């Protein structure tokens, strides 16, 4: 019998499918992903201040993917950490690890967020070093540069205790492997990749102007899969820590590509907008069928095999 369970950074997941950050906005609504059968759930990135997000519309489907510019709409750390405390208390018995995602633009801010979150004891902390939708306001995102990523990671690791910390990286950089390597050297327990690709733009040809309120946005869904596969492949070559791979997964073949490139866990985000949360049960059955058909007992046997 094939086995879908996975160990990632010392945390046990019943299956490799993780809801990526931001796919659901409200903390309490993430229960939908737990009930749908995800192996793990990442909460929407939390920032120091409350953020209203970018002007509407914030999301748009194009032919082979989605473009969004949500702009990190969230309640901010004070209210957000209270909501997370309630959520973790309610759902920690369900054996579905919960990842808390944090975003900041300054090292000091990141440390404040981590200090507030550590006592709540989430399964993992994900540092979003890669949001493309807030650049205009703050200048270049911190994680676009390896020095800053390394400094954040090393400072965060001093206060994160036993909770594993992973770095979520952007594909919109010259050398993602280099940034991953720097994060690893500064104590990261794992890498998540990729955040959205871009920025891109879609123009409404009737109104003769960009569709998104913020004009530009990050791309997700099928269009970005080959970039995600390439990024995971390059990161796997550069580091020894495990990788949570995501970007464009719709079907079992996409999952296998990411695993063969080097991913241990798989994020499935935009596919839930196309197919609903039931996509997770479909992917689990398809993955089991693939494993049984190919005599794979444990997913470990496939991780990184494209490098051989
Ligand atoms: C509407 C939307 C909001 C997102 N918000 C966040 C966020 O707050 N933090 C983050 O790290 N990634 C965010 N992402 C990126 C996803 O977590 C994921 O990296 C990306 O969508 C690629 O996976 P997918 O193609 O399976 O959706 C967001 C993506 C979408 C579509």
TrEMBL record:
Its main location: cytoplasm. Binds 1 FMN per subunit. The active site is at residue 131. GO terms for cellular component: cytoplasm. Pathway: Pyrimidine metabolism; UMP biosynthesis via de novo pathway. FMN binds at residues 21, 44-45, 128, 168, 194, 221, 247-248, 269-270. One of its GO terms (biological process) is 'de novo' pyrimidine nucleobase biosynthetic process. It catalyses: (S)-dihydroorotate + A = orotate + AH2. It is found in: Cytoplasm. It comes from the Bacteria. The keyword Flavoprotein applies. Residues 4-291 form the Dihydroorotate dehydrogenase catalytic domain. InterPro entries: Aldolase_TIM (IPR013785), DHO_dehydrogenase (IPR050074), DHOD_1B (IPR033888), Dihydroorotate_DH_1 (IPR024920), Dihydroorotate_DH_1_2 (IPR012135), Dihydroorotate_DH_cat (IPR005720), Dihydroorotate_DH_CS (IPR001295), Dihydroorotate_DH_I (IPR049622). Substrate binds at residues 44, 68-72, 128, 195-196. Its cofactor is FMN. Its EC number is 1.3.-.-. NCBIfam families: PRK07259.1, pyrD_sub1_fam. Belongs to the dihydroorotate dehydrogenase family. Type 1 subfamily. Catalyzes the conversion of dihydroorotate to orotate. This is Dihydroorotate dehydrogenase. It comes from Candidatus Gottesmanbacteria bacterium RIFCSPHIGHO2_02_FULL_39_11. The gene is pyrD.
């Amino acid at each position: 019998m094939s086995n879908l369970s996975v160990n990632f950074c010392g945390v046990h997941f019943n299956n490799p499918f993780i809801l990526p950050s931001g796919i659901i906005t409200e903390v309490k609504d993430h229960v939908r992903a737990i009930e749908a059968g995800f192996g793990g759930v990442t909460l929407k990135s939390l920032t120091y201040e409350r953020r209203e997000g970018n002007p509407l519309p914030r999301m748009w489907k194009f032919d082979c993917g989605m473009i969004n510019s949500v702009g990190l709409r969230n309640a901010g750390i004070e209210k957000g950490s209270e909501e997370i405390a309630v959520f973790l208390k309610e759902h920690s018995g369900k054996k579905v690890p919960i990842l808390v995602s944090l975003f900041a633009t300054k090292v000091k801010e990141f440390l404040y967020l981590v200090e507030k979150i550590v006592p709540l004891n989430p399964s993992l902390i994900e540092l979003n070093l890669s949001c493309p939708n807030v650049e205009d306001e703050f200048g270049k995102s911190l994680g676009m540069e390896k020095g800053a990523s390394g400094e954040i990671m090393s400072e965060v690791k001093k206060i994160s205790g036993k909770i594993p910390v992973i770095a979520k990286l952007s594909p919109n950089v010259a050398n993602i492997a280099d940034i991953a390597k720097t994060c690893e050297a500064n104590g990261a327990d794992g890498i998540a990749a990729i955040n959205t690709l871009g920025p891109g733009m879609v123009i409404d040809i009737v109104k003769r102007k960009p569709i998104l309120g913020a004009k530009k946005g990050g791309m997700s869904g099928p269009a970005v899969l080959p970039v995600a596969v390439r990024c995971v492949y390059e990161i796997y070559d550069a580091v020894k820590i495990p990788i949570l791979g995501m970007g464009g997964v719709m079907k079992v073949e996409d999952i296998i590509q990411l695993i063969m490139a080097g991913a241990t866990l798989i994020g499935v985000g935009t596919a839930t907008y196309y197919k609903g949360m039931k996509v997770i049960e479909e992917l689990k059955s398809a993955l089991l069928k693939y494993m049984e058909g190919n005599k794979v007992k444990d997913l470990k046997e496939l991780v990184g095999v494209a490098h051989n």
